[in-house]
Specification:
This protein is mainly beta. The chain contains 2 helices and 17 strands. Strand 16 (297-301) and strand 17 form a beta hairpin.
């Protein structure tokens, strides 16, 4: 699930399929029924390095599979980062591409796609004896609040350690959103097989790295260490800096249960500035797939900076 940062509006998948390999983008119904106005900024002329890197249509046949999307408004152009897989590879090797738009409806892929690929110095390459794909998806792109450069947090796996605990959030850096340097992971491995759909938010002087995981990818080491039931849902790490180091504030998921009621959670601010939690409503208590966008759920921040959501009343 992707979110656009803006004054009371968002762009999200219109339909949330049971399989992420069938995901597609779409514009969600505005949240006006909840009192959230829907306003889009007016595009401005494209210029500078962004113009020189303007995309050309029809040149990127390598990428044909959409996962979580992240969009930035840059130099009058909407920039969309997405995950694709080569059909000849059966979509098993994931790479990150870029597309641009002036109206959020018509999109053109960048001529140089893919722009961000997994660096084997740190990240696992495809090995079906170890894992079912080469994880490199769900880009969350943000501008560093002090340095001004761009950073991407990415679902990935390191190339060492027990296979069920190799999941990390990868890190890449760019000055222009086109040329990217892949860096070591932003998080430590050991807890999960993968950490999906990352998001970074700053709240009250702390930075929270949100991610989600299914019950099936909790590592044996985590299960033994915590003695907790494995759940499907949304968890987070916290740091004093946007680039970490990150640590878990709690072993308990912020939102999670055995059936996977909510997944791919994101934090956003409502028109009054209050933080809320939105997610894909995945399954009903009897296991029926729903694939709906949840209503915004109030998020609480306690005096120690811990996050919580009273999500059960929204089932």
């Amino acid at each position: 699930m992707g979110l656009l940062a803006g004054p009371g509006w968002s762009r999200l998948p219109r339909a949330l399929p049971a399989s992420p390999s069938r995901a597609a983008g779409g514009i969600a119904t505005p949240l006006e029924r909840l009192g959230w106005p829907c306003r889009l900024p007016r595009p401005t002329p494209l210029g500078g390095a962004a113009r020189r890197a303007a995309p050309q249509p029809g040149r990127d046949g390598r990428l044909g599979r959409l996962h979580n999307l992240d969009r930035q408004h840059r130099a009058g152009l909407w920039v969309l980062f997405y995950t694709g897989g080569h059909r000849a590879e059966r979509g098993l090797v994931q790479r990150i591409g870029l597309a641009t738009s002036q109206d959020l409806v018509h999109w053109e892929k960048h001529a140089a796609n893919p722009l961000i690929v997994a660096d084997p110095r740190w990240y696992e390459q495809l090995d079906l004896d170890v894992w079912h794909d080469q994880a490199w998806r769900d880009p969350w792109v943000f501008r560093h609040p002090q340095m001004g450069d761009f950073h991407a947090f990415i679902t990935a796996r390191v190339n060492h350690g027990p296979p069920d605990g190799r999941g990390v959030i990868a890190h890449a850096r760019s000055s222009d959103l086109v040329e990217w340097e892949v860096l070591p992971p932003a998080t430590e491995p050991g807890e999960f097989g993968h950490m999906e759909v990352p998001q970074l938010v700053g709240i009250r002087g702390r930075y929270y790295l949100i991610f989600c995981a299914t019950a099936s990818v909790h590592s044996a080491a985590r299960r033994e260490r915590t003695a907790l039931q494995s759940v499907t849902g949304t968890h987070y790490l916290v740091a004093e800096s946007p680039l970490g180091p990150f640590h878990y504030a709690s072993d308990e998921f912020m939102v999670g249960d055995a059936v996977g009621s909510f997944y791919a959670g994101k934090l956003a601010q409502d028109p009054d500035g209050a933080w809320v939690f939105l997610a894909s409503r995945q399954f009903t208590p009897d296991g029926t797939f729903m694939g709906e966008l949840s209503d915004p759920m109030p998020m609480n921040v306690d005096s120690a900076g811990n996050l919580s959501v009273d999500w059960r009343e929204y089932l």
